[in-house]
Design a protein that fits this description.
6-stranded mixed beta sheet; alpha/beta; 324 residues; disordered C terminus; single chain; 4-stranded antiparallel beta sheet; Rossmann fold; Alpha-Beta Plaits
Length: 324
């Protein structure tokens, strides 16, 4: 199911998804998207993060032809979704948040039917591959209404993959599902990326973005406030914590160390110092000198990087400005 990309020799391929000046204002006057510009490259996993109401689902719905944009342009692999809508939509797969599907159909029939809706020829081998990859093959003749919520979620994913899309949207795909299915989905997404499929993931589970994404985009109040490679983002905005395991517990941080902004943890057995990885001076040398002067001894120490979730919260709530 490797996507086929046609391009002129010597000519760079267009992005998998290109948004230019995309806006959406609903009849109520609510502006869901505010002139969004974004390019997502072919074959990458792109995580779109943002709080509820930030504009994630509106953006996806416009690209998939469910909602009409108020302004701007959207192209999928170089095909305008308005002028060349039939070709553009044939390249897109969507796994929505909702669990609605044809409850009286069998699993195999509904997935095969979806493939036919996109004008694809019958391909039982592909349908079998998709169902097996989602642990649905044993349920292929079961009616969907008899399946659990987690299994129905798998069916939605299978339907989205039935016509071999080149751009796949996963809109909160693992919300409310068990850890086993979440891990299986992560493995499937990686397999799709290896086959050249571009994956756009929205999620509330920050560990999904941290686990899978090549790049991360943060949207808030209808605006893209940051797009960055995941590792570069954590390097630029990340902080580190130095945790000192004390030989003797402290009831409080001594006044002589108040200038260091230290935090006590583990009932006074740990002293935590947070520092900026990009600062010219981390302050660790001075910290250790001041601890020694104060007579505080420690038995062990370790550092840890701040998580993507902490960085996301800082960005959305105005704790930090996006990097240049």
């Amino acid at each position: 199911m490797t996507p086929q990309h046609a391009s002129t020799p010597g000519e760079a391929s267009p992005p998998a998804l290109s948004l230019r000046g995309l806006t959406k204002t609903y009849d109520t006057g609510f502006q869901a998207l505010k002139s969004v510009d974004l390019d997502i490259q072919r074959g990458e996993i792109f995580a779109l993060l943002g709080p509820n109401g930030a504009g994630k689902t509106t953006l996806i719905s416009i690209v998939c032809g469910i909602v009409r944009a108020s302004g701007g342009q959207v192209e999928v692999n170089g095909h305008d979704i308005v002028r060349d809508w039939r070709r553009a939509r044939s390249l897109i797969g969507l796994v929505p948040q909702e669990l609605s599907t044809d409850s009286f159909e069998t699993v195999r029939d509904t997935v095969s039917f979806t493939r036919g809706l996109y004008g694809r020829r019958r391909n039982p081998a592909h349908i079998e591959h998709v169902l097996r990859s989602l642990s649905l093959w044993d349920k292929r003749d079961a009616r969907i209404r008899t399946l659990s919520g987690g299994m129905r979620r798998r069916v939605l994913i299978a339907k989205a993959l039935a016509h071999e899309p080149e751009l796949l949207f996963l809109d909160e795909p693992t919300a409310g599902v068990d850890v086993e299915l979440r891990r299986e989905m992560w493995a499937l997404v990686r397999e799709l990326r290896e086959q050249g499929v571009t994956v756009v993931l929205t999620t509330h589970y920050i560990e999904e973005a941290e686990e899978m994404a090549d790049r991360v985009g943060v949207i808030n109040h209808g605006e893209i406030i940051l797009v960055e490679r995941k590792d570069a983002l954590m390097h630029k905005l990340g902080r580190k914590r130095l945790t000192l395991h004390l030989q003797t517990a402290l009831a409080e941080v001594p006044a002589s160390l108040a200038h260091l902004d230290l935090e006590l943890a583990d009932d006074g057995h740990q002293l935590i110092y947070t520092f900026d990885t990009q600062a010219e001076r981390t302050g660790i040398t001075r910290l250790l000198q001041d601890l020694s002067s104060a007579g505080i001894r420690f038995s062990d120490m370790h550092t840890e990087q701040s998580t993507l979730e902490e960085i996301f919260v800082d960005l959305v709530h105005g704790g930090q400005e996006p990097p240049p």
